Amino acid sequence: MKLETVDYLADNAAEQFVKSLRETGFGVLKNHPIPKELVESIYENWQAFFNSDRKTSFSYNVETQDAIFHQRFQKSPKAIQLKT
C-alpha cells in the first residue's frame, strides 16, 4: 500500500488512519487541530533524543516487547521525512 495522507476532517478519517497504520506502519494526518509549533517541538525533542546517547538505554525488552530499534540492529538504514 502506498502511504496516503488522511484528512482529519473526513468522515472516514479514523478508519483510513487505522488502515494506514496497519498496512504501512505509519500514519500521516492533514487538517488536524494540533498547532504547528507543538508538532515542530515534538520533532525537535525526538531529534535531540536520537542524537544523544540516551537512546542506547532503551534496548529490546523480551517481556514487554518495548524498544527503540537502533540502527545497529537494522539490516539497512531507514529515513523518514517529516512535514509540518
Summarize the structure.
This protein has 84 residues and is mainly alpha-helical. The protein has two helices and two strands; from the N terminus they run E-H-E-H.
Characterize the structure shown.
By secondary structure, the chain is mainly alpha-helical. Helix content is 33%, strand content 7%. The chain is built from two helices and two strands, in the order E-H-E-H. It has helices at residues 13-24, 36-51, and strands at 5-7, 28-30. Helix 1 links the parallel strand 1 and strand 2 (28-30). The two termini are 23 Å apart.
Query: Can you count the beta strands?
Result: 2
Structural class: mainly alpha
Instruction: Please tally the helical runs, counting DSSP H or I stretches of 4 or more residues.
Output: 2
Poorly predicted runs are 73-84
Order of helices and strands: EHEH
Order of strands across the biggest sheet? Answer: 1-2
Beta-strand proportion: 5-15%
Rg measurement, Å: 16 Å
Form type: flat
Mean pLDDT: 79
Largest sheet entry: 2 strands, parallel
- Helix residue percentage: 25-40%
Ends distance: 23 Å
